[in-house]
Amino acid sequence: MEALHQATDMTQTIEQETRGPGIVDFISRTFPPFDHRAAIVSPFQKESQRDARFQEEFSAMLLSLMLEFHAWSTARPLHENERTADELEKEINALMATEKEQGMSSTLLRLFVGTPMFPSTHPLSLAAPSSLC
Question: Record's superkingdom (predicted)?
């Protein structure tokens, strides 16, 4: 019977060794302190600072873009007006050159239209309307 008792003790010892430390040992152990600053607070603060820097940079870029767009949109009508005026001036000059080539310059036409066709003594002259009545 003693052999059976020794075998049981030996089996219990082997089971304890294979199971590792007991529950009491596990519970009584002290855990390392949790460093909440290094694990949570510092990364959160770094991320918050990074977000704030991004917001500042983004706002500066957006403001710059808005100012450039405003300057462009303000200058655009002036530029387009100047360009259109230049194009119209070129067309007018081309038209005047064509008129001169054909002998129908607008200055000659004005001179022609501006001079009376009939002398003032002629019965159809505008200078003597009373003679018609």
Answer: Eukaryota
3-state secondary structure of 3: helix
pTM over 0.85: no
- pLDDT single digits (tens) 36-89: 889 999 999 999 999 999 999 999 999 999 999 999 888 888 888 888 889 999
Domain that holds residue 74: 44-85
Report yes or no on 48 lying in a domain: yes
What's the total number of domains in the chain? 1
Q: Looking at the domain assignment, is residue 28 inside a domain?
A: no
The enclosing H or E element of 75 equals helix 42-102
Rounded to a whole number of angstroms, the distance between the first and last alpha carbons of the chain is 168
Residue 107 near residue 116 (C-beta atoms within 8 A): no
Residue 98, domain member (yes or no): no
